[in-house]
Structures are given as structure tokens and as C-alpha cells.
Amino acid sequence: MVFIGVGGSIEEKINPELILHQGERVQINLINGEGAEHDLVIEFYGARSNRVIGKGAGATVSFLADKVGTFSYFCSVAGHREAGMQGKVTVEPGPRAAVRQIAPEISRDPADLPPPIHARAPQIVRVDLTTVELEGSLDDKTSYQFWTFGGKVPGPFVRARVGDTLEVHLRNDSTSILAHSVDFHGAIGPGGGSQFTQTNPGEETAFSFKAENPGLFVYHCATPSIAQHVANGMYGLLLVEPEGGLPEVDREFYIMQGELYTTKPFGSQGRQEMDYDKLISERPEYFLFNGAVGALAKEHPLRAHLDETIRIFFGVGGPNFSSAFHVIGQTFDRVKLDGATEPLIGAQTVSVPPGDAAILELKMKSGGRYGLVDHALSRIERGLEGALIVDGVRNDALMHEGVAGPVRARGNLQPQPPQFNRGQRH
Ligand code: CU
Ligand code: CU
After folding, report:
1. Ligand 2 centroid to 299 CA: how many Å?
2. Ligand with the closest atom to the CA of 183
3. What is the CA(219)–ligand 2 centre distance, in A?
4. Which residue from 385, 388, 367, 369 is spatially nearest to 377, judged by alpha carbons?
5. Mind listing the pLDDT tens digit for each residue in 197-238?
6. Are 199 and 330 found together in one domain?
């Protein structure tokens, strides 16, 4: 009987040594690989999982690794430790060193988008897109052969106004192996432009379309197998501003969600490869904001200041999974779904299907770090995690730790009568 590592540097190792760093909050997931009863205990930290009984059952151990040293973990079911179910946890001093990435960064900075157009007459807007196939950083010590518009995921943010004519030039880089194309959801006509832009490596094509309707529209590669081109990173957004532009905000951001289908499980190290069978049967290993694991939490968190208004252009490339986009700790003030003319006022979670997009506006009323998630929350464990960092003080009048007393004393709230009694139903 043994413990077997799953993912990362412990993948398939027997009773792997778990290397932690002082101050880290750790969660160990235990999955039962057979039908007997087991658990996982780290006595030194007083950390103990529930027992797992059925095959596939899961339990977790969580603790704060605040003491440096080497400690044992083991299964506390009688006889199991002696039968081989034990290993070591080593807590090293100081923070974890920054991990060197093994390939160039693929993730587009969410602040990388052109400024608002404001008021101007309709005109011809030239859009240059280059399709590039390149190995990029998917996670710490993990790379992937992405297919992109412009070498980043998502592709460049395209901005126009209603009534403009977009003249799209698609150049397929000479280093490409495959043909690529582009379908603009904001274009009217069969194929959205893809029939004019099937482009071989080293060649260039062009087409023009009129931006008839204002809204936020996905564009993506539409060369068969389309799902594969989209999964590999070939998607972006076109904003067609209404006449006079959108209302002014302090900051704008650009985020797109997609999923990746790899042969090896999520968290594996080294070069990941596409798994066509998983793609066709819709079993992704990774869920990503802007193309890489945790990119918007680590390299590129969204940054704003207290009392600023922000606008997020959020789209889903997919190819297959919808997003329930949510900011942890704040609701949206206004939401505009793709081509809708009237915004929704107030929303907590916004559902965006693949090939769709939404304009999300919120005013930041309290300082701190807000998580960005898909509220299908299992996907956090598969790479889908972002952050919005708001510089400024926390607004204790809106939320604070403990009983309502201290705020009431400052006169911000009326005293509330007790509302809940134990056992009472509401
Ligand atoms: Cu393509
Ligand atoms: Cu489409």
C-alpha cells in the first residue's frame, strides 16, 4: 500500500516527498485509488483528512506550513503505515523562488487594448492580423504549441465604430505548418469572412466588411478542424462602438476564456501535446483566462484604484465550455451582452457561451484583492484564476470582521434586531 503523486513534480511518484515553503497555506487532495479505507495525517501540524472509503472518493488536508523542518505524513488506518503508506513533508525556510518559465510568455496583458474612439465619422479601418504557431508558456515548467493571432492569447483587441468599413489583412507567418483564416462574428455574410481568408503559410489574404451593428464580437480561426484551431488559442474580440462611443470609465480590460485538451493530465511538467480524442469528446485538462494557467493572478493581475470605474471586455473562445464569469466580492453595475442595445442593471454572475462576449462595468467601492473566476468553481483547480487588485483602503462601512458594533458606533448603520434563532426556518 502506497501514496502515489498526481500532477506537477510528484506525478506518479511513490510516497512522494512534498516540498513546501514556510508560510504557505497548503491543501493536499487525497483520492482513493481502490476500495479500502484510507486517510492522510500529518501529526506535527495536527492535520488530518476524513477517511475515504469508496474507489474514487476524495478528502482534503489543509494547514499552514509555518514551521521549518521535515515531518512525516501517513495513513492512520491500523497497519497501513507499516504496510508502506508513509512519506515526508519538508518545509523549507523563506518564500518559494520565482519559477523560470521554459518558453516565451503567451498570455496577453489584459490592459493591452487600444483607447476609446470617442466621436468621429465612419471611416475605413485597416486591421492587420498575423497567424503564428509557437511554443509558449502554459504554466510554470509547462509549455504548449499554441496557434495564435499575433503571438498572444487572445489575439489583438480590434476597435471600430458603427458604420466603419473594416479592411482585414490576414498574413499567415512563413513558419506556420497549417493554413489559417478568420471569421468575424461582427461581419454580415456567410462564413463571416472565413471563405475569403483561408491562407497558406507565407501568404496573405484580405477582405472588407461593414460594421453594421454596435456590440462586442468574437473573431476566431475557421479552418478545419475549427475546434482544434480555436482550442489552440485562435480567438479574439472586436468592439464596434455605438455612435458617440461608450460612456467614459477610468480603466478598460480585455479577458478571454478558453480550454485546452492535452494528452497528459493538468499540472504535468514539460511539453504538453494536444489530445484530439479529448477535444472531440469535450474532456478538457485546462481552463484558462488569457491563455495560461493563473496568468491574470500571477503575471498580469488587473489593477485599479479605489472609486474608479472599470470596464471588462469579456469573451469566451472556448471552443466548448460556457463561462459563469464572476468577481469575488463585488457585483457588476451594468452588463451589456454582445449586441444588446440596453444594458442589464446589476448582476452577480454573467453567463457567456462559447463564441460570445459581454461588456461588464463596475465601480470599485473598497480596496483589496478581488478574485476573478468562472463560478463553475472546479475550474480553479484546472488553471482558471485571475485577480483584480484595487489600490486603496478597505471600506469598513460596507464590510468588516466581527459584530456590527464598531461600525454602528460610527453611525453608518442602524442597530439591527437579532434575525436568526437556532433551528428557525426562513
Ligand atoms: Cu487556424
Ligand atoms: Cu464563430
Report:
1. 29
2. 2
3. 7
4. 385
5. 999 999 999 999 999 999 999 999 999 999 999 999 999 999
6. yes
